[in-house]
Write a structure and sequence with these properties.
The complex is a heterodimer of chains A (about 350) and B (about 425). With about 350 residues, chain A is mostly beta strands. Chain A has five helices and 22 strands. Chain A has one domain. In chain A, strands 6, 7, 8, 10, 12, 15, 16, 19 and 21 form a nine-stranded mixed sheet that branches. The longest helix of chain A is centred in the first third of the chain and has 15 residues. Chain B has about 425 residues and is mainly alpha-helical. Chain B is built from 16 helices and four strands. In chain B, the strands form two sheets. Chain B has a two-stranded antiparallel ribbon with strand order 1-2. A two-stranded antiparallel ribbon of chain B has the order 3-4. In chain B, strand 3 and strand 4 form a beta hairpin. The chains are: A mainly beta (about 350), B mainly alpha (about 425). At the A-B interface, helix 1, strand 2, strand 3 and strand 17 of A face helix 1, strand 1, helix 5, helix 6 and helix 9 of B.
Chain lengths: ~350, ~425
Amino acid sequence: MSDRSACTYALVLGSLLGLACGGDDGGGQADTTTTTEGSSGASGDPTTSPTTTAPTSAESTGESSSGVADTTTGTSTTDGPADSSSGTDTGEAMQPVSINFGATVDGEPFACGQSYAAVGNPPVEVEPMDLRFFVQDVRLIRADDGTEVPVVLDVVEPWQAETVAMVDFEDATGACTEGNAETRTEVTGVVPTGDYDGLVFTLGVPEDLNHADPLTLPPPLDAGTMTWGWLYGYKFLKVELRQVVAEGVAGVGLLHLGSNDCTGVPGVDEVECGLPNRAEIRLEGFDVAANTAVIDVAALFGETDLAVESMCHSVGDACPPLFDRVGLDLDTGLPSPTQIVFTVE
Amino acid sequence: MARRIATVALVVLVGGCHDPGAVPAEGSSGVGSTGTTAASSDSTSAGSSSGTVATEGPDPDSSGSGTTGEPGWEWALPEGFPEPYVPPDNPMSAAKVELGRHLFYDTRMSGSGTYACATCHLQELAFTDGRVTAVGETGQIHRRNSMSLANVAYNASLTWAHPFLTELERQALVPMFGDNPIELGLDSEAELVANLAVEPLYADLFAAAFPDEAEPLTAPNVVYALSAFQRTLISGRSAFDRWFYDGDDDAVDEAAKRGYQLFNSHPAECFHCHVNFNFTDTAYYEGASSWDVRFHNTGLYNVDGEGAYPAIDTGLVEITMEPGDMGHFRVPTLRNIAVTAPYMHDGSIATLGEVLDHYAAGGRTIADGPNAGIGSESPLRSSFVPGFELDAQDRADLLAFLASLTDDAFLTDPALADPWQ
């Protein structure tokens, strides 16, 4: 771990010293010639999304073993909706929460190695190949005034770092071959003691981590099939289905969500992405003690022809219905109020 | 701004300290000029046809000349070659290079245990694979031709068309963990480490390469070592070099010399893009004044009359999402080009002679089929591909020059060969 910590430290140091230069470039907008003049002094390290501020209560501090925690310290912002409640003030009573996640295929439990008779349009028999996602900016909604209170994530290796957690339904059985046997169906943390009746989270990896070198980051952000080398970021959501066929070529349904239209050399420039592609999932009436946030894969692919190769790598002809259903505007990469994939159960 | 000033200062410093003889002779040809400086003048005439992404280099304070290696490391560089840029966190060492060589040729680097880096990068083919397009460990046929790794240390950007993958350490994650396409098919760092841990030789190799670490067999160290080895894949002692840099007038024949003159002539325009010591316009190295990353559309396709390339691979536009970047790809080195057939990003031209025909025509015409179109009429085609007269003598001379760039010592160097054999 020592080398990793050193690398992360260098990353943070570079960021703090303004060595990771932001470019006031044209973002590739002008003609076909793009000149990114690295201008230094990118202060404040604006993130596209709010990050939680580490609490000072003893319960969840002192997790300095996480390089992710180191990275966010000093660059976190207090802007944004997560800040409205002052939920992490010193001395406020905190309570642990465990947010349960589930996965289904048209209401049936999602499981690698199982097949599902009628998914997609037209409906065909499919089997899962993968289902994993990252969540950031997890919030609970106060029952009394509707304000959003950030959940301060526990640091749980290999699943959770300070500002991001992985949910994993892939167990390396059946047609699922790109992950491992372990699964993770909960996100844990602490919130100020109180009554809550809603859950909000973002499918994503925080911007200040999304383009860092995965080899310098601890799990769940270490290098693997959730890293997206080509887009030098992470797959926020990775869902893959395969048609079950007796013979011939099987159709595929695939959604890899990640930030796209990015400019900047990772580690040298500040990377900026024109299409963040971070969906915000808002579940009203969610009782954290009793409910489960369930993703239904059949709902995601409800308009998709799974008898052919329907692959959306955050770009491509297969994307429009998938983006719409997961709650993203394909043209802007920003959240839209159209998501029907996650529900409360 | 601090970095910009510091960068300029370093250039002056290096210019003053280096033996002028180590810098390619200027004035004689495009080869002689240092690429990134020359490129800036190109950009004004390139018009809208050449996509350029220029960013500044890394912090020079931590990567100054002479600090690219551990104590005792010495580059063995051909005449005319500048010192490669090395990231400050991965200084060169002989032990690291030797470890990297073992890893490069080790099939434990793949998920199935059947594929190594060397499976698609064969030394005798200048670290290409001779295929039209590559094939991954699962048998998946890729869409792109395996690129030569000769002089990869000098590439300002890596792969065929990516402006932001600039370091080998970062690029390595693409073949290792990528799933579209699957190349080496690794699933996780843990899988990689477990695969390698069964080989007894690695205990000593990792310990020697990373002597300060208690448990050096880690995924980051794998990538460090692979990158260090790849930076030693330097090819600069071809017959052409013995003539041009060493003054051996007999090293190449008269046909090759005529071909070199044609290469640098204005109707042909080859030298604009295949410029400097590595015959590409995207070189980066210690002391380079800026980090220019350039891409061009050569009129290889024009499937819609508006310059479109086949949907399977549209090049730079996939990354930048700028319509004008359609069909833009990086300029590969011409060193060892005679042994790296087939050619172009998709391997769609079988021979060098046909490549010359494509450029002489100012773009390729495909008469029928799904990719039919007249490349020379593409509005996106580079202004450096205007077309030119090419008679049989000229064609033979140009081929002779290109053949003179084959570096047999590089293709057979035991230091770069499979250590497991």
